[in-house]
Amino acid sequence: MKLHNGELFWPETVEKQIDYPPLNTEVTCDVLIIGGGMAGALCAEELSHTPFKTVLAEKGRIGSGSSSANTGLLQYSNDKMLHEMAEEIGEDQAVHFYKLCLEAVDELQQVSGPLTPPVDFIRRPSLYYASDESDVSKLQKEYEMLNKHGFEVEFYDKELIKERFGFEKPAALMTHGDAEVNPLKLVKALINTANGRDVDVFENTHLTEEGKEGEYWCFASPDGRIKAMHVIYSTGYETISFAKSLGAELNRTFAIATTPVESLERWSYQALIWETKRPYFYMRTTADNRIIAGGLDQEELTGTLDEDVIQDRAAKLLKRIKEHFPDLDIDVSHAWAASFGESKDGLPYIGEHSEKDNIYFCLGYGGNGTVYSKLGAKMLCELIHGKPSEGADIVKLDR
Length: 399
Known about the structure:
The chain is α+β, with helices and mostly antiparallel strands. It has helices spanning 38-47, 82-89, 91-112, 136-148, 158-165, 183-196, 240-246, 307-324, 369-384, 392-395, and strands at 4-6, 26-34, 54-57, 73-74, 122-129, 153-157, 171-180, 200-202, 208-213, 216-221, 224-233, 249-258, 272-275, 282-285, 291-298, 332-342, 349-352, 359-363. It folds into two domains: 4-70 and 184-246 and 345-395, FAD/NAD(P)-binding domain, CATH 3.50.50.60; 121-181 and 249-342, D-Amino Acid Oxidase, subunit A, domain 2 (D-Amino Acid Oxidase, Chain A, domain 2, 2-Layer Sandwich). It is globular. InterPro entries: FAD-dep_OxRdtase, FAD/NAD-bd_sf.
């Protein structure tokens, strides 16, 4: 499956490429992680603090899949508003999940801090604005729900948005606790750190499941073999066949990076910006004062996708940026299309297979994939330890 097309931005920011060998022998381990993207990297880092012998295998290069097309917004808010989620799964469960996601952002900061080289993790607020007047009441309802449960949130009217950001929208919520990151730097640094703590890492290693031998799950590659007590599939959108059986869908989105901007003084706090309309437009800044923007999602991976289509979407995304900040002198420097998965209820798929003991999945489907992956890494580490994991019932595979 080709997970992205076009010219990606993040690979150009990685100065040093670390190479890992392919598997060429037989290895026995406690935990095998299949997939070297964001979810796999966070699982590897989490397990590197345990006595479990852990192995990570990636069929291509580390971070070469969806992680290199990730736009790096880290938000605790779901694509589904808290009050909407409460109507579906109950207020207590919805609030609990939101708080777990906020904790995951805090934990991502803790993990990112000591990484070398730096991964450009910066705490940012989020401005979530009403795309039109009809969505103002939804934002008011969301404000009341967030405020009721102790989340740090402010309600902005039209005048305050104009004062703080310069553009006009009917209303907005300013939430606090989110962040931005260079996702590819984060993946590579996490896996390098885990490798330094004796997690074995293999690139260019395509594994095929062979079944069980006693208490071990067995996997073969062209030149090697792995026997593992526990297995975590962190293969993201490559796992769409399995995820579809759970109710997931695979869609396509578009993103751009702009040329650097001299000044972003009208962009208060360099907040992450997104809207209520679906599919939504969103944008953020980078450490070198570029703007990353995305949206224009397609619900199915149909139709042609050539350079003309990507450039057409890039022009539209640039136009959307300039609708907000018309004085910016910017052009598109990078434009790409990427596949992404969504679950019907807006929640990730994290947990143990219902029919295969000790086979787990960490699938961060949705707009908050990195946050979900951090949440999943912690949950699965606890499950492998045989401990009850807080919130596991909310995201389990057979919910």
